[in-house]
Amino acid sequence: MSLFVREKPFYRAFISLTLIIGLQNLITFGVNLSDNLMIGGYSEAALSGVALANQIQFLLQMLVMGTCEGVVILSARAWGAGQIQTVKQAAAIGMWIAMLLSVLMWAVVFFAPHAVLSVFTGDEAVIAEGARYLRIICFSYLFFAATSILLAMLRSVETVKIGFVVSLSTLIINICLNYVLIYGKWGFPELGIRGSAIATLSARMLETLIVIGFVKRFDDKILLRFRELLRINQPLLRQYLRIGSPILMSNTIWGAAMAAQTAILGHMGAAAIAANSIATTVFQIVTVITYASASATSVVIGKTIGQGRMEKVKPYAKTLQLLYVAIGLVTSVLLFVSKGYVLQFYSISGEAKELALRFMTVLAVTVIGTAYQMPALTGIVRSGGDTKFVLYNDTIFMWLVVLPSSALAAFVWNLPPLAVFICLKSDQILKCFVALVKVNRFRWIRSFERAA
């Protein structure tokens, strides 16, 4: 059997979905990068404050994205089987869950910003800046949740260009408002970090309006009526919880683990916080195709199973793994080559710049592992129906390997930030061996009745 399938529709579907979702992700992360660059040019304390506040945003993103993945898995199969009503019902379930999570997160952040930020660092200047940002940005959580679910619904039926349009609009609005509100240009007051928060909130509100307008007037596949989002199909809810709850739990654990990682580095000083923020933001920018490949895989594999073409799933999975490795190698080179240029845009201390440079060198190596194992597990295995495995795998690696070793390195052995950072990213390589075995044993292919 050839390592690569010879079907143009397969490559056309995977590549087109990956590129368009990748462009959308690129612009989405471009919003974070514009915040980092403009705030980084304002003050290091403000940059560190935004970095910590964004950890709360990241946890919400993981929760909402976990909800979205459950929607996509159910809806992609329904789309393959021609069951449009199921797509609508899955979106309704996802919307209720995502909105509930965002309201809870808003309440915690709005009423106790100092308490939340003090978990990450003891630097009062950084906490004060982060609290100013959080009290405004938390109002964007509801808009982000609604937009994400609607885009997930559209993505599951292979409508992805609207996501690019939405992200591009957000980026343009965010950059313009950042410029005038942070620094007080064109007659606007100089608001500093609060200006950045207002800019992002405004952009999130706009993107929600754009998606609603598209669904209402231009979508010709789902034909959703928004009152349909108010009704919950109980049998499908039980199915969603069986399939989606392990994904939501996995993403929750992952988001909490990322917050713990930031807390570990945060207690090593403001320079480590700033360096980690820069390195992580650049990493997110250059890995947009990697994360897009996982989303594209969920649609391609889910649709194939929904169509009943089970004989195609194995060859597709083998070919996809080779494509992941190629993506990882290209991404590694791009990250390594670009690391020096990016730092020129930041007004931070020499210590922070040196740390950021070293952190990005580490990421240039581990990104190859990320590019393979992440889409293999969250794309292939999850969309195949085995949604519990990633939960178990992430829990073991993160909470029994990565975090304990990193905490020991930082607080017991008193190793430098670079050594701690290597410990924090070690799982990206270790998980590759697990993914290789799991995917190629093909025991993850399950029907809805056996899923989860």
Automatic annotation (TrEMBL):
Mind listing the UniProt keywords for this protein, alphabetically?
Answer: Cell membrane, Membrane, Transmembrane, Transmembrane helix, Transport
Q: What is its main location?
A: membrane
Q: Name one GO cellular component term.
A: plasma membrane
Indicate whether Transmembrane appears among the record's keywords.
Answer: yes
Subcellular location as annotated: Cell membrane
Q: Per UniProt, what is the membrane topology?
A: Multi-pass membrane protein
MF annotations from Gene Ontology: antiporter activity; xenobiotic transmembrane transporter activity
Q: Which residues cross the membrane?
A: 12-33, 58-79, 91-113, 133-152, 164-184, 196-215, 252-275, 281-301, 322-343, 355-377, 389-412
Key word Oxidoreductase present in the record?
A: no
Show the InterPro entries listed in the entry.
Answer: MATE_fam, MdtK-like, YsiQ
What's the protein name?
Answer: MATE family efflux transporter
Record the organism. Paenibacillus yonginensis
